[in-house]
Structure formats: structure tokens, C-alpha cells
Amino acid sequence: MTITPRKLNTFTIFKLPSAYLCGVRTQYIDSTKCVVTVKHKWINQNPFKSMFWAVQGMAAEFSTGALMMVKIKASGKPISMLVTNNKASFTKKATGKITFTCNDGELVNQAIKEAISTGEGQTLTMISTGINEQGVEVSTFNFEWSIKLKN
């Protein structure tokens, strides 16, 4: 079964309902990148009339995590994944539609290959950048993921 944006959006309804209610939606996914959008609206705003930082974080994390899920599935191996650290920076108010893109598919390939060949857990840092409708960066998230083969 191929993981598609539609399947990922259905996944969020049942497994991540707060992300779904806040408008987090996968737009595109392939072997190298994942694109997730979220639109500023009443339910996900902060008191300053912009998108709450945690909603941006949900969209950004999902762009990295969905890419990780695709790669783990493709490996055919039982591999666990966990966010162990994250860092974010915010450079502009997030209003309108924000598009988060992660282009770290090859990085994930390398970490999975290493985990399989050594049997040791691996960590990797994936980056997701949020861009508004004017093409201006509003935030950048760095997620440190830990992966390892399940016993």
C-alpha cells in the first residue's frame, strides 16, 4: 500500500485529531520531500491574531514524520521512530496559508541503512521550513528523530 496525501490526511482524523481540526493537511509526498499546509483561522490563532506556534509545530513535525514513515515502510523492516529533541525559530507572523516543506528524504535513507546494517539506533535532524503565501519564511523547525530496529 502506497502512502498518499489523502491517506495521511485520513490518518490525522483518527490518530491526530487536534492537528486535523486545526487544519493541518498533507499536500504532497514522495521519496525526497513532504509538503504540509495549515491555514491561519480562528481555531488555531494566538492572542496576537497570528497562528499559534504549536500549530505550526504540528504541521512542521508532520512533514518530517510522514517522510520518515514512508521510508520505514519502504525498508520493509520493523523500525521505531521517536522525536527526541526539537528547536524552532520564528521570523514573521504566521497568517494566511503556511506551507511547511521537508526535503530530507535522502538523509532518512542513510540513517535507516545505517540502523539496519549496524543494528544500532541512529539519530538524525530533519528540517521543515514554513513559508507564507508571499513566499516569505515565517518559521523553521529542526526535529531530532531517533530510529532503531525493533526486537
Topology:
Elements: H1 5-15, H2 17-22, E1 25-29, E2 34-39, H3 53-75, E3 79-90, E4 97-102, H4 105-118, E5 122-131, E6 137-149
Antiparallel strand pairs: 1-2, 2-4, 3-6, 4-5, 5-6
Number of domains: 1
| Biggest sheet statistics | 6 strands, antiparallel
Beta percentage is 25-35%
Order of helices and strands: HHEEHEEHEE
Overview of this protein structure:
- This protein is α+β, with helices and mostly antiparallel strands.
- The chain has one domain (5-149): Thiol Ester Dehydrase, Chain A.
- The chain is built from 4 helices and 6 strands, in the order H-H-E-E-H-E-E-H-E-E.
- Strands 1-2-4-5-6-3 form a 6-stranded antiparallel sheet.
- Strand 1 (25-29) and strand 2 form a beta hairpin.
- The protein is globular, with a radius of gyration of 15 Å.
